[in-house]
Fold each of these.
Amino acid sequence: MRITYRNLNNKEYWNRRWQNLPVDNFPIDDNFYPLKYAKKVIIDKKGLILEAGCGAGRVLNYYYKLGYKVVGIDFISEVIKKINKVHPYIKAEEGDIRNLRFNDNYFQYVLAFGLYHNLNISDLNTSLKETFRVMKNRGKIVASFRADNLQTLVTDFIANFKLNNVKNKNKIFHKLNLKKKELCEIFEKHGFEVEEILQVENMPFLYKFKLFRKQSHKKFNENKARTEGYRLSLLGNLIQRFLINFFPDQFCNVYVIIAKK
């Protein structure tokens, strides 16, 4: 288990992120992360879904429009206000995964993409205990965690190099990076039965480098990347496919875990 440090705490970091991004209102391709993996567990249309860490609402909006019963929570009040303003019909509220207001055995499904790794190990244990509590028996969870591998190590090295050149820098906990075995063990510790852990490419490693991006993506624009996907040039795609096909454990950037209660 490796810790990533930055110069902002998580609340400050996500406040800045969501202040600069509009509510997600674009079509989302369900053949790719994260919906590709949500679809593996969400089968019963009558089963209540919790999206923990709903962010700007793209997954929340997708399932609502398909007629599913879904509730979204996020600890950033600003992004919840944005969702409620643009999509007043969607159930989205401010909430803390470490202390949920919901009753025991309440949700059939839990989605948590990019949430738990923002917590230190103590808070991660607390949040998984709470998640287990609010899930129904035989309910399922699908969650993504930042992988502890070569790709994230290089990414953190680049970020830390930039941070070291910032005056008055202050290194604060940012994310946990976990290996497959560690991820499996912590879920089993809290009573979950792990069904699958998948190596997933959310943002391609080479997208970090301007040289390998598609021409229209040379200037980084996060909203555009979230809308269109992280597009690489022909050369970038060829090299990225080689890396992910032959070294998936080292060049995926997240692990997706599927588990049941």
Amino acid sequence: MLPQPRVTVVVPTLTAGSALVECLVSLVKQTRRDFEIVVVDNSGKHLAREAEAERFGARVLEQESNVGFGAAVNLAFRESRAPFLATLNDDTVASSGWLDALLAAAESRPDAGMIASQVRLAGDGRLDSAGMLVSGDGSSKQRGHLEPPGRFADPAEVLCPSASAALYRRAMLDEIGLFDEDFFLYCEDTDLGLRARWAGWKCLYAPEAVVDHEYSGTAGIASPLKAYYVERNRLQVLVKNYPASLLWRAPWATLTRYFWHLISILEDRGSAARFRREHHGLPELIFIVARAHCAMLFRARKLWRKRRAVRSHAHIGAPEFRALLERHWIAPRQVAAL
């Protein structure tokens, strides 16, 4: 009988192409062997089996349709008994010491429920993520995005990890719950991270856990799909997790970010400018924003119930949580510039 794996590495996939194969090859080359690989195929077309994912020792779980990132990870977690769960995008390549570095960080601090990797932009050399930052309107951005990795070479406590390459402690997930499947795509890692911080869990950044990432390889860097889910889901993060003292200020932070997005369009930089360059007009962008707010209002009662559930697991008070957010803050102008 095989020993119980220390880590379950979950790789959700939609296209199961050559990128998935490269990702699995990088996992086979890890310096430790006490882990299992679970590929969750969201294609509904058996693409992971066609890519021969099982040839790399992966167990394949197939969905009938695309259920989203969080639901795919949750499925694998429910079938796992490992004390740690790692998430990895299918368009990433992990360094050989990736898992070793993540586990070393987790084992150094029993109160660390989450470990963030150093995620680099593939073929670029600059950082994609060294943890996450949040803004006053619920927006989240990658810490260190587009900066040289050398500036983030030291271990540190960060707010929460990007789930593109992260490690989570089972004890934490058993306490606070899994990814919120209503997010479907984007920001579910921020939501999970903030729920964990309310419950008193910490997040560490492990700079030696290096991963190369093809940024937004699935939904596109500036696609209407991504724009909608990011806008809708930052509202869900806001309502579920922000203390009342910050909620009333959120509309002003939102308007401020929209203003700087408009400036960035005029200056041809940032995500809004990329959206405009890809032949998506300003009316479409306004429609996406309006649609996202309508979706949030439609779910308002459900979100408020979830907000109460988050508070039921809280081990810190609102002033302490607000101070935590402010230590990992990003201004609306900076959000618009990325």
Amino acid sequence: MRIYILRRLLQVIPTLVGTTFIIFIIINAAPGNPMSTLVDPTISAEAIERRIEQLGLDRPLLERYGVWLRETFQGNLGYSTRYRGRPVTDIIQSRLGPTMLLTFSSIFLSFIIAVPIGVISATRQYSKLDYTVVVGAIAGVSIPVFFLGIVLIWLFALQFGWLPVGGMMRAGARYPSWFAWAFDVLRHLVLPLITLTAAGTARFVRFTRSSMLEVVRQDYIRTARAKGLSERVVIYRHALRNSLLPVVTILGLSLPFLFSGAVITEAVFAWPGMGTLIIEAVTTRDYSLLMGTNLFLAVLVILGNLVADLVYALIDPRIRYD
């Protein structure tokens, strides 16, 4: 197991280098640059050219990537033009907490809700409950995140007034205690959490149901029933454990997917996380900030795959990484 983990970690370096190079080429191939977002008519063309030279944007593309890669290995992700020279690492750290709160809460809720529903649906195939679950899962995957978010805002914030429209906490609020602050954050979290969890739950339900339907037809399940084991033991101790393998794969890949999917959700609810940060970086052509956020997502993809592989061995003892 240790050798396997070491090998996978060593594969991270060339993978990240190749990924960041492709991202760097794509970002720089887009029209415009950080200076193109300036709309101040008082800035002369000469001043803009000097600023471009200071930022190194007039250098060859490969040279600029080499400089960025060298600084990245030294722990420096560059400085943001959008935030007046603030280090990209500090900006990402300040936005990471809200996104992790939203994303990990969504993954946890999606998994604990979807797995029992998928199992029940598979064990009652072609029943009214099964058809309802299938239709609901398809609807959950099909409904756009921004549309669901707007509907929830209109219903629970504007019509009933039960929950806030957006943000993470009340602007300028002073809380008398930690409990009051946490309660306010949770109230602001409800709507974006429901929005982000809906699609994840629907996706997990579909995979759990499909995997369970395949497993319950296997010979060892018939053997377990023939031995006189109760249906509950057969389903939850024998069938479910093996059917979770493909679900774990999707769960590992859901981490970067939810972080990227949170871009739209955070924009709709003005949630101050990585999603709104990525939108700001794109609209202002902030190359350093874009590279930093994309590097973060690339690391999540690699770690998600590694965690999924390691969880395989916990679920199925037959799997060994030697």
